[in-house]
Q: What sequence folds into this?
């Protein structure tokens, strides 16, 4: 990525390139805007001619009166032309902005889809989502605004020319204010860009925090850290508030100045123009034309003011978006890329070295050949490079040295698409998309028939549980497939890979979450399906190794040994240890002796290994350690920190490429020169975070009603003060010019100047007050919504896509806050102005005022029709943009799955389809806007023509003064402008209305696990668990996940839950953690119903390790200390040592200060699980819940963990979900589950002696072969065998 700050010309040129894709809209919108400006300049000249005509001495003649009528008709014709031109400009500009927004979204999405592995690992999802939503929206707003601005700039220039022609001397007044405007504009640009830039960076950080907390919700709730996450979000939001208030202060300062300076010009015109009129050098018509032109100058200046804000924000947005679009993958096709060879393919690693940073290789000179059609299993300890080896084959990364060849050709010389098309891969994390089960299985072959999908499911042993689901293959799975169990997800992922009929199979611990019985059936099928296919198995289980022709043992990134199972059992102590753990090795080698690497230093001071608590400073030229870093300074929340240096696991650290627009020295210097951002929202935190089942706009505004009212009063006063000027001008003309009183003219001008200066201060204060109140509301909304998200139970997260939740926390919150900050104030001010102008007009001349009043019923009818048509379009658009955001976020998370199955183009088309639907909805609404807004102006122009005709007639008869007529014209725009402003506010109102409705739905959503009215505090738990008559179904499905559960676990007992995948094991753990409440029955701890306990207190006494070991960004220390952020470094290291994670951490570049990437992606699955175990150990739980906590560990590492866990669990209750039955066998008691019930209960030996379900599972596990031969359930096995036979026939084709 380039490091230089993009120049203004570069980002404008790039944006223009996008606009030129839609030339008709671009040129049409600008042409219409320019033509409209020309017509607008001509209108005051027509009015001047009419006023001069009727003011002439012979004005009473019939000829003069008759000559007025054609000019009135000319004005009506001009109004009609302006309506057409404004409609064209608005519609085409709106379509252009939406089309460019669509193009930018598509390019961002496409760019993300082609990122290589290193760039994927560096992704900051929150930042990327912020670019997709906020930044692209800023660009859309800028483009919709530019044509009107261009027309107004031309209007400004031509008006000045017309003024110069009318009176060169009077034009000097207009030219006199130009330097002041220029100076203020330059100062505004100097301050606003860096202020907006740094605020947008902080907004991205805040979105990242929300995204991390939503994604890691199970960890947050498992450790009872909801309040901590809310505190962290509040801190992020306070920092953003302070930065936004700095922007508001600049805007109030410069915007009020840019509005007041043209007002000074009007005072100058009154004084100088009046003096010239007194001396007969200009006519009254010229004075009115000048006043009109000067009024027309205010609009362009205000728009330029707005551009300085919108433009600076949009520039930052464009640069951030273009940074993503311009990111180019390092892994690309070579210019002379070749076709992949036909037939079976050999894999060959020749002296391969690779690391996620070049200075820290994971693979070191690895040599390995997998012959065509051969199956080779890869075994090794956690972090030995097993998954890394598999990731190199589909070219997520390229080797740093050596070569990887497929079919005898270096993979870098083959077409990337061909390579991936030849591969079927099952990742260690089974990512599924929020679609039907059938669509997920057919993900790699969207055109597969239903029979082929079913056959693949049968081969993966997934057909049984799928057909039991309410909708079968049409069942929608939740985001990332989290509505299914880990084993169910793995089987669907396996079916997905099998359906592609790959020539190379990569199975990365593909059955780790599947029970032994189902695994044995899968393996029996796989023996036939992988025959003739080159297959690489990353394996931890002995049973999986039975598929392999040879087994490669990895150690320190090299192949330590390779051979058949029998050969390795004889000659490799490491292999025996990896399979059996301590005590099983013939030579009596203990697990610890072979699993740990040498520590960088054994110097231990105060329980801390010094070398593992030092940070490698990035500016060190030789990479040496320059000092001891301060540990534990990070907040340790799920969003704290940003990933940096890569580790030895599954990918590089996060950060880097997408952290924002490059922070160049020049830009940082501008930021440093800004005044400090020190504002505080001054909001009652407890009230902001409190649950509010009756949440609504009135309750939201209640705590801020006084500052909100004060802001309205100030802006209302500003509007009223602006209405004073036309009356003063009338007095100056009638009493000063008309009666030749120079003194009156000077006095009136002085009063006007005083009013203007006072209004300048009022305007700045009003903008600051409303801006601050709006930012306080935004802060309150963010905190309230996030706090309620923390209260909601897991069923909400399983129903709602993360993208939709993010839309509520970003788009909806921003829309409501922006309306309350500016739109609502504008609406109230418009009403006040309308009433005030109407009163002023009636006072000036009631008869002439009636001409305007006639237009009101027409205007009200048009407004009613507009709202009726536009509201459904806005609601539809809001729903569709939620879909766009949800798809975007999901595809960012699943990009690696998309790439390995060559779905980038299909996913892009699907995303663009959703984006197109949103664009069409917004375009329909844009059509209504383009028709309505110009109609309001058309009515104003026609009314102005009528006033001119009627007023000129009365002026010629002496029943109306010239000053009154001029004042009437100056008030004319002020009469219709409020109505037009109300119409413009309608856009924001609709977005805010929909946003408020969705936020109300969110904030009124009841939690599935509410606290009792008077919750019982929990200081300590003995650990006794009782489940009585428990029945539970996810989302109140008709098919219960568990039923008739009656269970008592005495304090201190260790219990293992075993059974087939989907039997309800993880559900039991979730009920104990109170992630859900049972539909029937009760769950008790120490005899107290969990529903009566304080939920956060209770969970803080739990240690929870979920199936997917989600880690928070930050350092390893922060990840371990998540449940106890106040823990000392000594306590953190002691917890890591206790579960066997310390030795693994010692291999990382910066030990405990090593940065963890987003979701822990820069660590292997085994490394993540070890850290998750240490995290649970550190809280010293009274109840330990392990949901397949060691599934990704090799048996030796698992043995160390299990041994440590057994030692540590002697005084705590432990509930373990176990598919590795060696883990279950060590428990005091084993519960066997089937179809949601406990069917067997007892210790290991007793259950074996019963020769029932557990005994069959055990035989399947220890034999590594199909357990069907020894099963007593013959009928079921016959059915399974038939399904497998059918699957073999179809899938192995």
A:
């Amino acid at each position: 990525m380039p490091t230089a700050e993009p120049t203004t010309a570069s980002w404008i040129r790039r944006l223009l390139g996008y606009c030129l894709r839609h030339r008709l809209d671009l040129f049409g919108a600008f042409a219409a805007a320019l033509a409209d400006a020309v017509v607008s300049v001509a209108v005051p000249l027509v009015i001047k001619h009419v006023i001069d005509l009727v003011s002439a001495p012979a004005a009473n003649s019939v000829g003069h009166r008759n000559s007025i009528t054609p000019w009135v008709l000319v004005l009506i014709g001009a109004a009609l032309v302006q309506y057409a031109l404004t409609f064209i400009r608005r519609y085409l500009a709106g379509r252009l902005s939406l089309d460019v927004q669509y193009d930018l979204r598509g390019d961002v999405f496409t760019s993300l889809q082609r990122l290589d592995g290193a760039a994927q690992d560096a992704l900051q999802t929150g930042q990327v989502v912020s670019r997709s939503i906020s930044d692209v929206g800023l660009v859309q707003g800028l483009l919709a605004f530019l044509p009107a601005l261009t027309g107004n700039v031309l209007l400004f220039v031509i008006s000045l020319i017309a003024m110069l022609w009318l009176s060169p001397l009077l034009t000097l007044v207009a030219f006199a204010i130009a330097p002041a405007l220029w100076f203020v504009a330059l100062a505004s640009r100097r301050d606003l860009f860096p202020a907006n830039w740094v605020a947008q960076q902080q907004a991205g950080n805040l979105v990242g925090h929300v995204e991390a907390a939503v994604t890691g919700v199970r960890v947050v709730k498992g450790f009872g850290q909801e309040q901590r996450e809310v505190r962290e979000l509040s801190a992020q939001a306070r920092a953003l508030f302070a930065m936004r208030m700095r922007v508001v202060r600049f805007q109030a300062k410069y915007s009020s100045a840019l509005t007041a300076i043209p007002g000074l010009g009007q005072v100058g015109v009154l004084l100088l123009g009046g003096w010239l009129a007194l001396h007969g050098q200009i006519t009254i018509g010229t004075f009115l034309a000048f006043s009109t032109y000067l009024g027309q100058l205010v609009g362009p200046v205000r728009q330029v003011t707005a551009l300085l804000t919108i433009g600076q924000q949009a520039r930052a947005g464009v640069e951030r978006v273009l940074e993503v679009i311009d990111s180019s993958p390092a892994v690309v096709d070579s210019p002379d890329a070749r076709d992949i060879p036909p037939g079976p393919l050999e894999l060959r690693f020749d002296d391969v070295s690779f690391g996620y940073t070049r200075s820290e290789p994971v693979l070191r000179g690895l040599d390995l050949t997998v012959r065509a059609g051969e199956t080779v299993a890869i075994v090794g300890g956690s972090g030995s490079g097993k998954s890394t080896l598999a990731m190199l084959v589909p070219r997520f990364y390229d080797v740093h040295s050596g070569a990887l060849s497929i079919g005898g050709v270096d993979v870098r010389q083959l077409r990337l698409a061909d390579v991936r098309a030849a591969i079927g891969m099952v990742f260690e994390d089974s990512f599924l998309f929020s679609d039907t089960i059938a669509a997920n299985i057919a993900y790699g072959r969207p055109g597969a028939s239903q029979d082929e999908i079913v056959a693949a499911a049968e081969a993966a042993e997934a057909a049984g549980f799928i057909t039991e689901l309410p909708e079968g293959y049409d069942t929608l799975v939740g985001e990332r497939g989290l509505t299914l169990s880990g084993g169910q997800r793995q089987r669907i992922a396996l079916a997905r890979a099998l359906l592609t009929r790959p020539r190379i199979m990569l199975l990365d611990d593909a059955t780790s979450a599947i029970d032994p019985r189902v695994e044995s059936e899968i393996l029996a099928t796989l023996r036939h399906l992988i025959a003739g296919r080159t297959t690489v198995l990353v394996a931890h289980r002995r049973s999986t190794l039975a598929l392999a022709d040879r087994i490669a043992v990895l150690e320190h990134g090299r192949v330590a040994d390779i051979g058949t199972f029998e050969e390795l059992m004889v000659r490799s102590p490491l292999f025996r240890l990896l399979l059996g753990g301590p005590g099983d090795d013939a030579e009596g080698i203990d697990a610890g002796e072979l699993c740990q690497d040498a520590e960088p230093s054994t110097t231990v001071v105060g329980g801390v290994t010094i070398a593992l608590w030092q940070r490698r400073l990035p500016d060190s030229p030789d990479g040496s350690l320059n000092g001891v870093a301060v540990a534990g300074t990070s907040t340790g929340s799920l969003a704290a920190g940003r990933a940096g240096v890569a580790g030895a696991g599954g990918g590089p650290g996060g950060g880097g490429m997408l952290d924002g627009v490059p922070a160049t020295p020049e830009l940082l210097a501008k930021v440093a020169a800004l005044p400090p951002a020190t504002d505080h929202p001054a909001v009652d935190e407890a009230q902001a975070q409190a649950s509010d089942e009756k949440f609504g706009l009135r309750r939201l505004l209640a705590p801020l009603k006084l500052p909100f009212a004060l802001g309205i009063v100030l802006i209302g006063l500003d509007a009223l003060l602006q209405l004073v000027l036309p009356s003063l001008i009338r007095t100056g003309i009638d009493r000063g010019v008309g009666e030749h009183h120079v003194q009156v003219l000077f006095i009136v001008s002085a009063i006007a100047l005083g009013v203007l200066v006072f209004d300048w201060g009022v305007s700045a204060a009003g903008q600051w007050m409303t801006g601050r109140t709006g930012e306080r509301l935004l802060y309150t909304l963010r905190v309230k919504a996030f706090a309620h998200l923390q209260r909601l139970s897991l069923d909400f997260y399983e129903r709602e896509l993360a993208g939709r939740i993010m839309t509520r926390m970003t788009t909806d919150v921003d829309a409501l806050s922006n309306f309350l900050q500016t739109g609502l104030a504008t609406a109230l001010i418009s009403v006040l102005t309308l009433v005030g102008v109407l009163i002023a007009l009636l006072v000036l001349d009631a008869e002439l005022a009636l001409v305007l009043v006639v237009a009101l019923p027409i205007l009200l009818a048009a407004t009613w029709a507009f709202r009726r048509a536009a509201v459904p379009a806005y609601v539809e658009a809001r729903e569709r943009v939620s879909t766009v955001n949800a798809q975007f976020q999901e595809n960012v998370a699943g990009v690696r799955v998309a790439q390995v199955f060559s779905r980038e183009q299909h996913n892009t088309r699907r995303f663009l389809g959703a984006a197109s639907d949103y664009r069409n909805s917004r375009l329909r609404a844009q059509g209504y806007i383009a028709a309505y807004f110009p109609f309001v102006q058309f009515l104003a122009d026609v009314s102005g023509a009528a006033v001119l005709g009627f007023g000129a007639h009365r002026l010629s008869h002496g029943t109306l003064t010239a000053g009154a007529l001029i004042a009437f014209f100056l008030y004319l725009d002020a009469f219709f402008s409020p109505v037009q402003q109300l119409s413009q506010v309608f856009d924001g109102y609709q977005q805010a209305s929909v946003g408020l409705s969705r936020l109300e739905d969110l904030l009124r959503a009841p939690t599935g696990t509410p606290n009792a009215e008077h919750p019982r505090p929990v200081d300590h738990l003995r650990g006794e668990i009782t489940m009585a008559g428990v029945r539970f179904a996810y989302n109140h499905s008709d098919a219960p996940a568990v039923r008739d559960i009656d269970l008592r676990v005495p304090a201190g007992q260790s219990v293992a839950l075993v059974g087939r995948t989907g039997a309800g094991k993880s559900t039991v753990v979730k009920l104990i953690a109170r992630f859900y409440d049972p539909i029937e029955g009760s769950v008790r701890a120490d005899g107290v119903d969990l529903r009566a306990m304080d939920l956060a207190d209770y969970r803080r006494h739990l240690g929870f390790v979920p199936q997917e070991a989600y880690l928070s960004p930050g350092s390893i220390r922060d990840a371990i200390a998540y449940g106890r952020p106040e823990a000392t470094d000594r306590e953190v290291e002691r917890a890591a040592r206790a579960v066997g994670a310390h030795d693994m951490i010692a291999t990382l570049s910066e030990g405990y200060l090593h940065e963890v990437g987003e979701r822990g992606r820069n660590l292997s699955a085994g490394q993540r699980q070890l850290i998750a175990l240490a995290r649970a150990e550190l809280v010293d739980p009274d109840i330990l819940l392990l949901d397949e906590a060691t599934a990704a560990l090799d048996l030796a590492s698992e043995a160390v963990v299990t041994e440590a866990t057994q030692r540590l669990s002697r005084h705590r209750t432990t509930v373990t979900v176990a598919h590795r039955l060696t883990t279950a066998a060590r428990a005091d008691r084993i519960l066997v589950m089937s179809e949601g019930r406990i069917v067997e209960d007892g210790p290991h030996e007793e259950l074996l002696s019963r020769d029932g379900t557990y005994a069959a599972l055990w035989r399947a596990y220890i034999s590594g072969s199909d357990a069907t031969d020894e099963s007593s359930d013959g009928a079921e096995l016959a059915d399974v065998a038939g399904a497998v036979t059918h699957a073999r026939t179809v899938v192995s084709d």
About this structure: The longest strand covers residues 347-354.
